């Protein structure tokens, strides 16, 4: 069963209401996910179209996203981060 998620609009409303207690950026295979804690609830951010957990490819992108939404302080857990193989650095790629 997929975890319950929040979307951008909900996150924006939570931040405006001042109820966000913490944000956690979590390194995973291929990128970074974002989990937000508010009250006794902790939920990952969903991608708008797919409704799946949003995966940011670059840490800088999630940092800018959080600052834009109004969250300037957050925790980063890079212990399971694995960028995977980048196409531009793939020696088997012809181009």
TrEMBL record:
The domain of life for this entry's organism is Bacteria
Write the protein's name.
Answer: RelB/DinJ family addiction module antitoxin
Task: Tell me which species this is from.
Answer: Escherichia coli
């Amino acid at each position: 069963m997929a975890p319950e998620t929040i979307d951008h609009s909900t996150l924006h409303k939570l931040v405006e209401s001042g109820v966000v207690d913490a944000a956690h950026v979590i390194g995973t295979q291929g990128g970074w996910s974002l989990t937000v804690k508010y009250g006794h609830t902790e939920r990952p951010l969903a991608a708008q179209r797919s409704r799946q957990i949003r995966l940011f490819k670059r840490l800088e992108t999630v940092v800018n996203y959080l600052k834009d939404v109004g969250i300037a302080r957050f925790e980063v857990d890079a212990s399971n981060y694995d960028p995977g193989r980048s196409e531009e650095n793939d020696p088997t790629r012809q181009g």
